[in-house]
């Protein structure tokens, strides 16, 4: 309890405060302030002189220009930052590395403990670009000298795609207070409307962050984790209503605004969106879950466990868990969410208990349990977490799984069973089985359905939910192999000319009109309604590596390499076989670029996938076995005080 109170003191301003000052302005400002009404434009600000936005060309291999313009990074002419300890003695850490410039041509990187660590951010970026060019040149020379001419040319072509992808990924980096903080959603110079594609989305940054981790570039991920954590504590209100504490933003933007009292100077601020400005005004349920997964991956990849051990980070984890584990009216262990609360962020009939959210929820619970520091105040939370893990895994494996055998059982279901021993617990009507499913289901293979509610089973195949169920061990070993068997059996439907379908099949006709509200962006076989998303390559790769079947992912990557660079890295593809670039698809989509890079890096070093994979531990297996052997339809009564796991 004492730790939680100390953390609240830090968040409320009683602990350390971060100040950014500039000698040009002769003043200092607190980086975080919680006095009176919260003003987003004054939170997390860093006064500095900002250069004007300038367009510059995308750089390809060896610096060749592709003739595309993009927004140049905000660069600081002068930014001095320091941390001041409060009299309360609550010791925190810097939000990120803080670059302090002294004399001309003299710069050092200073951490809170005062140790110097390398050159300034701009010099470091230049050095990294030079190193990348040298590495790329050496790599090409090696391939040419070690293979036949044809193989060498093919290898150089692939390398050029990877080099181009790395250049594009680095072009998308956003800096705040002189340090990299994330990547924007898209750098499409051909688009006349930016909308929110110039913001840093939490879910979109995950493949970017993983790519940087696999490359050994940890600072940007650390900065992202800690800055988004600070945004978590903001007051979030829409129409006089505030959601629960612990909600992470869907996205945030680094804005440049005039500095108070000096119209000739500007400052950077972080402006988050918790769903108040999003299309449909839906809160992002998956943001906090992805944040926990990335936090664990950072610790495993970098070996730096100090970040997850920080008081404010531990508090952030607990806030997310309490929000997700809060009691409600629901009878199921799955998370109840609205439509559009995850990657499928428009109305697509996934409201209720969508598989994607449940897979991320299960994965985040396992990751959080691994990172939570043991203390007296966390015993109840860990107990609730363990209970939910067992109940959730049982529920998904038992009721979401479908293969030919299960489909035949549903076909023979009796309905209107009022009994504690009912077989058809959710009163599913056999007529819900669509003709397409009977023909589509292979004899070998199966998958987890998209959603389950009373009298409703969503039989659509959702790629992300199924793949992450494999990665997180939410699916059993046999189920995981069966999911990959189905992907292979239905390759022409799920992969075709560009991996990977976000869901299958598409909603069409009257069903599309009713469920989507005749959404002109989610027309059949487009966008979320059966569109193909290259970013899903990295989830497919992790799942295949975990199951020791990397050849499936390698085959999908080769298909993507045939055209993704030529097509300018689109956000998604349309039509059944992904023949067309999406009608409203952004080009140079960052997570399309990052997803490809993560797949290539993991296929080159499969052991690196361990930073994302979670294995089911023996305690959960034993508890699950006890539940299966016991009668799950046991007689009702008062809960035993000795009961550890509940359904």
From TrEMBL:
Catalytic activity, EC: 3.2.1.26
Hydrolase among the record's keywords?
yes
Catalyzed reaction equations:
Hydrolysis of terminal non-reducing beta-D-fructofuranoside residues in beta-D-fructofuranosides
Q: Does the keyword Hydrolase apply?
A: yes
Recorded GO molecular functions are: endo-alpha-N-acetylgalactosaminidase activity; sucrose alpha-glucosidase activity
Q: Report the Pfam families cross-referenced here.
A: Glyco_hydro_100
Sorted alphabetically, the keyword list is: Carbohydrate metabolism, Glycosidase, Hydrolase
The biological processes this protein is annotated with in GO are: sucrose catabolic process
Q: What class of enzyme is it?
A: hydrolase
Taxonomic superkingdom = Eukaryota
Among InterPro entries, the record links this protein to: 6-hairpin_glycosidase_sf, 6hp_glycosidase-like_sf, Glyco_hydro_100
**In UniProt terms, what function does this protein have?**
Invertase that cleaves sucrose into glucose and fructose.
| Sequence similarity | Belongs to the glycosyl hydrolase 100 family.
Q: Which PANTHER family match?
A: NEUTRAL_ALKALINE INVERTASE 3, CHLOROPLASTIC, PTHR31916
Q: What is this protein called?
A: Alkaline/neutral invertase
Task: Report which gene this protein is encoded by.
Answer: CIN
């Amino acid at each position: 309890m004492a730790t939680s109170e100390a953390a609240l003191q830090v968040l409320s301003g009683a602990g350390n405060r971060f100040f950014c000052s500039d000698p040009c302005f002769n003043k200092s400002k607190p980086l975080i302030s919680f006095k009176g009404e919260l003003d987003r434009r004054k939170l997390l600000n860093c006064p500095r002189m900002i250069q004007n936005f300038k367009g510059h060309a995308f750089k390809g291999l060896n610096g060749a220009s592709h003739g595309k313009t993009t927004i140049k990074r905000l660069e600081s002419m002068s930014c001095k930052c320091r941390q001041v300890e409060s009299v309360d003695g609550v010791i925190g850490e810097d939000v990120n590395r803080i670059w302090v410039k002294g004399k001309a041509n003299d710069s050092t990187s200073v951490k809170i403990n005062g140790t110097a660590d390398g050159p300034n951010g701009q010099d470091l970026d230049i050095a990294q670009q030079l190193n990348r060019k040298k590495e790329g040149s050496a790599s090409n020379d090696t391939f040419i000298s070690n293979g036949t001419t044809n193989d060498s040319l093919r290898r150089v072509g692939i390398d050029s795609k990877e080099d181009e992808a790395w250049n594009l990924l680095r072009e998308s980096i956003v800096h705040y207070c002189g340090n990299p903080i994330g990547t924007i959603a898209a750098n499409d110079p051909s688009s006349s409307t930016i909308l929110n594609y110039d913001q840093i989305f939490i879910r979109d940054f995950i493949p970017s962050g993983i790519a940087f981790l696999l490359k050994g570039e940890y600072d940007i991920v650390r900065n992202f984790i800690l800055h988004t954590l600070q945004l978590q504590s903001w007051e979030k209100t829409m129409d006089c209503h505030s959601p629960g504490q612990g909600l992470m933003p869907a996205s945030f933007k680094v804005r440049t605004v005039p500095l108070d009292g000096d119209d000739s100077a500007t400052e950077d601020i972080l402006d988050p969106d918790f769903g108040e400005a999003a299309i449909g005004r839906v809160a992002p349920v998956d943001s906090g879950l992805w944040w926990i997964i990335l936090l664990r991956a950072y610790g495993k990849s970098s070996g730096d466990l100090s970040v997850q051990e920080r008081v404010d980070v531990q508090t952030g984890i607990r806030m997310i868990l309490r929000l997700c584990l809060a009691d409600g009216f629901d009878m199921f262990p799955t998370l109840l969410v609205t439509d559009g609360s995850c990657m499928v962020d428009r109305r697509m009939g996934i409201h209720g208990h969508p598989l994607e959210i449940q897979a991320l929820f299960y994965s985040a619970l396992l990751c959080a349990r691994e990172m939570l520091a043991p203390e007296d105040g966390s015993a109840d939370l860990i107990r609730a977490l363990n209970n939910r893990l067992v109940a959730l895994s049982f529920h998904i494996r038992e009721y979401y799984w479908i293969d030919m055998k299960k489909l035949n059982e549903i076909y023979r279901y009796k309905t209107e069973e009022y009994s504690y021993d009912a077989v058809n617990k959710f009163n599913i009507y056999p007529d819900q089985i669509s003709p397409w499913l009977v023909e589509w289901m292979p004899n070998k293979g199966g998958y987890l359905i998209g959603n389950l509610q009373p009298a409703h089973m969503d039989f659509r195949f959702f790629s992300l939910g199924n793949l992450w169920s494999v990665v997180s061990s939410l699916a059993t070993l046999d189920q995981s192999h069966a999911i990959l068997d189905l992907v292979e059996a239905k390759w022409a439907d799920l992969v075709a000319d560009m991996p990977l379908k976000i869901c299958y099949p598409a909603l069409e006709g009257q069903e599309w009109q009713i469920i989507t509200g005749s959404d002109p962006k989610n027309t059949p076989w487009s966008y979320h309604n059966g569109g193909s998303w290259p970013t899903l390559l990295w989830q497919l790769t992790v799942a295949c590596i975990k199951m020791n079947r990397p050849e499936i992912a390698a085959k999908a990557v080769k298909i993507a390499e045939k055209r993704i660079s030529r097509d300018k890295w689109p956000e998604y593809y349309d039509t059944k076989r992904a023949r067309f670039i999406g009608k409203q698809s952004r080009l140079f989509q960052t997570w399309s670029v990052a997803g490809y890079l993560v797949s290539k890096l993991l296929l080159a070093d499969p052991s690196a996938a361990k930073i994302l994979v979670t294995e089911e531990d023996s305690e959960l297996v034993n508890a699950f076995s006890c539940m299966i052997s016991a009668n799950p339809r046991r007689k009702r009564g008062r809960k035993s005080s000795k009961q550890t796991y509940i359904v």
